[in-house]
């Protein structure tokens, strides 16, 4: 009864609103976003806009994710710890040679890589290789690399979320803001946690490095932003600086604290690996890209049918042809 009263008294307003909607629908003046206007202009003039090659937005990753074997990697760590340099140096290594069993097979974000890599090149005429700070924001953050695995004879797409340290720190200890602003990280295949080797070599700064890493890991894991197949890589970056310091105490400190971090993670995830990396070492120390081959191998693509729990299918008879297909792909006999 009460519902009736509300409907009758509001009816003229609702009707007017409905008519206005219809007007909008059939009107020629449909409001368009800037990019749609641009696309429309280009088509009118008889040409299509080409992809920009810049880093992809979350929306733009869909075409890669939906079509092919893809691995999503989130590099985590505070400002200046070396995240972007790891991503760009890996790309640059392929300009010299293959890396382990991988061959370069393309990238949708060449421009994005080049913008970030320019100052690390010898021809930028800089004395010291530097990487520009990643600006804050979540708009165009995904770098794309397609590689061919010579051993497995398959193409794999890697998507790297090039987040700025400031963006990560803004959500560091806040489960709610992390879940709301970066919910895409729940689809990550790997969380690659970068521990800044330069700060680890400094006894006044090293405690902060470990604390930050354990806080962000705990926030992600407590927020449940992972699955049973998620992997974690603990990466000591700028390892050339630790090697150069030649300090047994530093190495001991790192070993002890890495073990504690691993203990924390194993409560949630059991696929953990530890890596020593020097993506862009100082001259005369380790080679450029030291340890990146090993890290790349740890981001291995594993098809979802190999990650599932097959005990269910063995225990109960499956009816759905879709479910049976998974078991067949995994090499399990199923009627
Ligand atoms: N010595 C040395 N320096 C490095 C190495 N890797 C990176 N760096 C330097 O560390 C600085 C910071 O590196 P970035 O890759 O920009 O760090 P980031 O984590 O992406 O920083 P934000 O984008 O601010 O979050 C740059 O000046 C790099 O040249 C390394 O292996 N050895
Ligand atoms: Mg960066």
From TrEMBL:
<feature type="domain" description="Double-GTPase 2">
    <location>
        <begin position="73"/>
        <end position="299"/>
    </location>
</feature>
<dbReference type="InterPro" id="IPR027417">
    <property type="entry name" value="P-loop_NTPase"/>
</dbReference>
<dbReference type="InterPro" id="IPR045528">
    <property type="entry name" value="DO-GTPase2"/>
</dbReference>
<dbReference type="Pfam" id="PF19993">
    <property type="entry name" value="DO-GTPase2"/>
</dbReference>
<protein>
    <recommendedName>
        <fullName>Double-GTPase 2 domain-containing protein</fullName>
    </recommendedName>
</protein>
């Amino acid at each position: 009864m009460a519902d009736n009263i509300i409907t009758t008294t509001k009816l003229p307003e609702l009707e007017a609103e409905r008519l206005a909607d219809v007007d909008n629908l059939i009107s020629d003046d449909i409001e368009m976003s800037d990019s749609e206007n641009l696309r429309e202009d280009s088509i009118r003039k008889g040409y299509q806009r080409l992809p920009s090659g810049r880093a992809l937005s979350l929306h733009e990753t869909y075409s890669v994710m939906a079509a092919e074997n893809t691995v999503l990697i989130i590099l985590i760590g505070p400002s200046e710890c070396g995240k972007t340099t790891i991503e760009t140096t890996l790309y640059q290594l392929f300009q010299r040679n293959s890396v382990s069993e991988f061959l370069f097979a393309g990238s949708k974000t060449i421009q994005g890589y080049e913008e970030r890599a320019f100052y690390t090149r010898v021809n930028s005429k800089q004395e010291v290789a530097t990487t520009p700070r990643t600006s804050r924001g979540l708009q165009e953050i995904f770098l794309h690399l397609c590689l061919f695995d010579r051993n497995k004879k398959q193409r794999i797409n890697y998507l790297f979320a090039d987040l700025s340290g400031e963006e990560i720190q803004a959500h560091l200890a806040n489960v709610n803001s992390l879940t709301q602003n970066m919910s895409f990280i729940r689809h990550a295949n790997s969380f690659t946690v970068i521990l800044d080797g330069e700060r680890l070599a400094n006894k006044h700064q090293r405690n902060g490095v470990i604390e930050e890493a354990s806080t962000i890991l705990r926030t992600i894991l407590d927020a449940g932003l992972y699955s049973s197949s998620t992997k974690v890589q603990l990466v000591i970056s700028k390892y050339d600086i630790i090697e150069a310091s030649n300090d047994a105490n530093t190495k001991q400190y790192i070993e002890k604290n890495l073990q504690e971090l691993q203990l924390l993670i194993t409560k949630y995830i059991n696929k953990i690996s530890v890596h020593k990396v020097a993506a862009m070492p100082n001259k005369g120390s380790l080679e450029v890209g030291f340890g990146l081959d090993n890290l790349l191998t740890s981001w291995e693509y594993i098809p979802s049918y190999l990650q599932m729990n097959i005990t269910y299918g063995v225990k109960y008879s499956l009816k759905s042809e879709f479910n049976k297909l998974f078991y067949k792909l995994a090499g399990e006999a199923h009627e």
